[in-house]
Amino acid sequence: MAALIGFLIPLLAQAQQAPTYPVFENDKLPISLYKQRREAIESQLGASGAAILFTNPERNRTNDTDFRFRADSNFLYLTGFEEPDAVLVLAPGGIDIDGRRVREVLLVNESNPTSETWLGYRMGSQGVMSLLGVELALPNRRLGDVLEALGKTPGLKLARPLVPPDPSGLVATMSNSVNEWRKGLASNDLNVNSALAKMRVIKSPEEIVLLRKAAEASVMGHLEAMRSVQPGMREYEIQALVEYVFARNGCESVAYNSIVGSGPNSTILHYEADRRLMEKGDIVCMDVAGEYHGYAADVTRSFPVSGKFSPEQKAIYEIVLAAQDAGIAACKAGAPFSSAHVAAAKILGDGLLKLGVITDRNQLGRYFMHGTSHYVGLDVHDAHGDNTLREGAELTVEPGIYIKAGSPCDKKWWNIGVRIEDDILVTANGPVNLSAGAPRKVRDIEALMRQRGIGNIRLRK
């Protein structure tokens, strides 16, 4: 019996120490990738350098209701940690904490039975070390102890702390403590935000897998919207449909507020109300996409509510499509980031001149007033860390033409807003369109719209 007890005691102790945090999915980024990223920043800080980064606080929506939490993207990029009120301390030369010499400390909210009952699971310090591979994790109430240890670093040079905009709650309290503590310290030459922006431009193979999943889920939403839309529907019905499809395909969130603009609303770049009753003859400019494990897609399609483009809608659409084709072709490794915009803008200008919508190329900005591209990644408008396209970068190509009622052109063009947007991966073999599954050609769109979609199924009462 004594031998059996002696055998069981270590197992029971191990069970008590094991993290209770549930892992529901196994396709997130490997913890080794996060470690490589932290080490890359540490190598740039130098042995006497240090960096302190904060994640986002929880944001209040109204009264006692908060928005669903989303971690700061730089913080997520370095740690994979998705809970609020956390601080990452990087000290390449090492600091002494609780008898250990460590180079990185992640301070987090601890889990307890009350928080789990009311708020759900927390990873806690033990879970962070075992599940995310961070060298040392501690309760965030011990930030002062970590700062005291860090302050003993000979010749310490601290990089400017990265604090999210408008910090509140515990994040504001902790960042204020850091600002007081660092007064008089020497500054590190490294701009951590710029260093991370440059790193984030180039996606690893593992990141590309997640970006593809976000794009594929987004494409599915666009397909169902094209099948389902019909006169008499509200814009919000299509919004609800696409967001359902994103979630059903594993997206935790939309990548940005869904834009479903019909008729006059198609000419508003970031129209988010999505309340109008759609009518026969309207064109819809639909900019909607999902976020999968933190990685965004950004996809736009424009199509007629009635299922068939009018001659005027088709003429504008074909110009935008040609411009997008030219922009995508320009997305080659080594090319300037602006290449897609230059190529697309030329086609747009030529097309509107030919139609008589403008009489001078300088008037193009009246109907095309935004850039053609931005990087995509952990943010839909991702960190812009390079003005040269590199293999492994992902960017959008999204030309558009927006002709509002009252514009100085023939009335037949009024209330036509067309944007076509895809997510383009720069590779050694040329650009790859990750969202190509959503049709772009007029004949393909009209053919798809002759099908019925899940949005046409009447709900039971």
At a glance:
The protein is of the alpha+beta class and 461 residues long. It contains 13 helices and 19 strands.
Describe the structure.
By secondary structure, the protein is of the alpha+beta class. The protein folds into two domains: about 180 residues, 3-Layer(aba) Sandwich (Creatine Amidinohydrolase, Chain A, domain 1); about 260 residues, Alpha-Beta Complex (Creatine Amidinohydrolase), CATH 3.90.230.10. About 35% of the residues lie in helices and about 20% in strands. The protein has 13 helices and 19 strands. The strands form six sheets. The chain has a six-stranded mixed sheet with strand order 6-5-4-1-7-8, with helices on both faces. A hairpin with a 2-residue loop joins strand 12 and strand 13. The longest helix is centred in the middle third of the chain and has 24 residues. The protein is elongated, with a radius of gyration of 26 Å.
Which labels suit this protein?
2 domains; 6-stranded mixed β-sheet; disordered N terminus; alpha+beta; single chain; Creatine Amidinohydrolase, Chain A, domain 1; 461 residues; 3-stranded antiparallel β-sheet; 19 strands; 13 helices; Creatine Amidinohydrolase
